Amino acid sequence: MRTVIFDLDGTLIDTSADLIAAANACFRHRGLGDVLDPVADAAIAFRGGRAMLTEGFSRSGAGGPAEVEEDYDKLLTAYGAAIAIYSTPYPGAWQAVEMLKNRGCAVGICTNKPEGLAKSLMDEMGTSHVLPVLVGADTLPVRKPDPEPLWEVVRRNGADRDRAVLVGDTETDVKAARAAGMPVILVSFGPEGPGIARLNPDAMLDHFDDLPDLVERLLP
Fold it and tell me: GO:BP terms for this protein (predicted)?
């Protein structure tokens, strides 16, 4: 059985604006105002909460590593309280997943977002039933780029390790797939756009309509 494993943020769903809003809530609490821009800083959002806080404190000159750690839990709380205000799925994402399932593929999510937040996001969007297998950053003792979370998605589907592919949007996804010995597809519509091809994935995905046929080519 083929398994198609999806990253979440920047791959299935554009969550950047809600992530930036959570970081800006932390900056406002410190009297710094909205330091990050939801459009210009979208790529930073997909690098995680600490990356956003680090960038914001660096720009404002108002903090460093200590302030990042002080505010990290506050950021997660703010994000969890307003997790799907602006987030939207990329066009055709859920339809592609359903088509893969109809073709007999197992599917699942492997994300470096904490599991509870990832499940809340899927619940809020009404899509938990589309991808019920979900492995988050804290599901196991390790996270991507360690390959073990990818294998956990395969295991939970009762599928075969040698017939799995990862769909993602970052260097972390490429490193995880390479460590697992599985092919990786990178989306050209994520935070870095077509430039992500510099990471030499096994394939690029320009639109989710193309994914089912691409999976069959990579996993014959």
Answer: DNA repair
SS (H, E, C) 124-159: HCCCCCCCCCEECCCCCCCCCCCCHHHHHHHHHCCC
Alpha-carbon separation of residue 199 from 127, 151, 154, 185 (angstroms): 30, 22, 24, 11
Cis peptide before 132 (omega within 30 of 0): no
Active-site option among 7, 9, 14, 18 = 7
Residue 64 and residue 57 in contact, taking contact as beta carbons nearer than 8 Å: yes
What is the rounded CA–CA span in Å between residue 102 and residue 97?
Answer: 9
Q: Residues 112, 186, 128, 21: what is their CA dihedral angle, to the nearest 10 degrees?
A: 60
- Residue 14 CA to residue 11 CA, distance in Å, equals 7
Q: Which pair of structure tokens corresponds to residue 204?
A: 């690029």
Closest among 148, 147, 188 to 170, alpha carbons compared = 188
Q: List, for residues 10-19, the tens digit of each pLDDT value.
A: 999 999 999 9
Q: How far apart are the first and last CA of the chain?
A: 11
pTM of the full structure: 0.93
Cα gap 52→56, rounded to integer Å: 6
Q: What's the CA gap between 215 and 130, in Å, rounded?
A: 18
Q: Would you list the DSSP string of 64-80?
A: -HHHHHHHHHHHHHHHH
Structural tokens at position 128: 């938990």
Q: Could you tell me how far CA 163 lies from the centroid of its own chain? A: 21
Active site residue 7: yes
Look at residue 47 in the predicted model and tell me its pLDDT: 86
CATH topology of domain 3-13+88-218: Rossmann fold (3.40.50)
